[in-house]
């Protein structure tokens, strides 16, 4: 999976969120930080080479910052789409959006009144018009106030968002974690840590087998009952 | 009603729609054509002086062009809103959006998949966050293909959008038309045209009286029937 993360942040130097995401995501994607003016041909090459395109930005007035809108307005032209509007077909379009307000406010009757999905309709429309597959957005809510645990969870969710087939199946998440544990085991020289990682991997594998058994039984019951 | 029309069009010289709207709207509003970079203080003064703020732009990738987004990102700051976020209270926020595609495509199951209302949620969110009154958007669909009659209707709808209380009541539309006919009558020196305008005004007035009578009767019936 060739993933391109396009970062549209007009004040990148002041961002806490973006360096964190880049650090935890650097082995999983190519990062491209937008700076105007754009060389259109170069930008279009980057997009054509990617399989999954992620637009990553802070929500400014409920949409992409002007910098990213400029990039969309200039780069997404007839040349990029091609004469038959099929050059982006089979590519995927994802969004990683960071919020300065709590996610719970994005709901009817709450302060931000509409959901993130509703506010991002223009990008969903872009995916439809360019025949890209739209991925459910990954929301980073008030990163500055997140605990270390929340940030660790975010790191995993982000790495999976960059690399796993979407929408993610539980089984893929488990397989992904198993691979990660194996890699960590190989990379560490601490024998205690190695043993712990091995135990974790074994536990995960056992749980997955139990789950598979349950699923098999469920299927049998369904067949027997004629559902 | 002090109406400020802010035009965010990156290629104004190529637009057919914008000069038309400016021509028919010039007696009804102040027109402000955006050009970056912005002098923030001047822009904010313009907004504070207005009672009705109209964002007027062509829909680019289902949202405002980058130029207008830059203006929103830079001008709508804490200073504009004030320490208690109440400096824009009681002002109105309207949108005049021009489309390159037919309006009928903006619907579920059609090519643009979502409605204009859905695509404009970010601006509606802006109105809510700044405590401005949101006005139903005025949509200009494929101006280039519009007949003269359609353009005349658009001119009236536009002038009313700039000047009448919103949402518009039928009675206000009629009163507005009556005033327009009177003004035209005063301004023309052609006696035949004067007579025709007078007849039109009389007809309009008579129809309004009939409608008032009908409404009175309806109210009576309702009261008698105890509704």
Short descriptors:
homodimer; alpha/beta; 2 domains; Rossmann fold; 227 residues
Overall description:
The structure is a homodimer of 227-residue chains. With 227 residues, chain A is α/β, with parallel strands linked by helices. The first copy, chain A, folds into 2 domains: 3-168, Rossmann fold (3-Layer(aba) Sandwich); 169-227. Helices cover 51% and strands 13% of the residues of chain A. In chain A, strands 1, 2, 3, 4, 5 and 6 form a 6-stranded parallel sheet that branches. The longest helix of chain A is centred in the C-terminal third of the chain and has 35 residues, at 191-225. The radius of gyration of chain A is 21 Å and the shape is globular. The model of chain A has no long low-confidence stretch (mean pLDDT 95). The interface between A and B is medium-sized, with 28 and 28 residues.
| CATH fold naming of the largest domain in chain A | Rossmann fold
Task: Give the overall shape of chain A.
Answer: globular
List how many beta strands of chain A DSSP finds.
Answer: 6
**Residue windows where pLDDT falls under 50 for at least 5 positions of chain A:** none
């Amino acid at each position: 999976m060739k993933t391109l993360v396009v970062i549209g942040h007009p004040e990148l130097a002041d961002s806490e969120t973006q360096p964190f995401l880049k650090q935890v995501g650097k082995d999983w994607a190519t990062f491209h930080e937008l700076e105007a003016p754009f060389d259109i041909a170069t930008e279009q090459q980057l997009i054509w080479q990617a399989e999954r395109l992620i637009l990553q930005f802070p929500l400014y007035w409920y949409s992409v910052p002007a910098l990213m809108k400029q990039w969309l307005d200039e780069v997404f032209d007839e040349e990029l789409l091609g004469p038959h509007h099929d050059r982006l077909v089979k590519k995927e379009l994802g969004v990683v959006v960071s919020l300065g307000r709590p996610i719970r406010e994005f709901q009817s009757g709450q302060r931000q009144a509409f959901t993130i999905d509703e506010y991002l309709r223009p990008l969903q429309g872009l995916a439809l018009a360019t025949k890209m597959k739209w991925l459910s957005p990954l929301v980073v809510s008030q990163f500055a106030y997140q605990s270390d645990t929340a940030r660790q969870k975010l790191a995993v969710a982000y790495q999976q968002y960059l690399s796993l087939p979407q929408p993610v199946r539980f089984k893929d998440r488990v397989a992904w974690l198993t691979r990660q544990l194996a890699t960590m085991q190989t990379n560490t020289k601490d024998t205690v840590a190695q043993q712990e990682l091995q135990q974790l991997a074994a536990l995960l594998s056992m749980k997955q087998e139990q789950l598979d058994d349950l699923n098999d039984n469920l299927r049998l019951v369904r067949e027997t009952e004629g559902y």
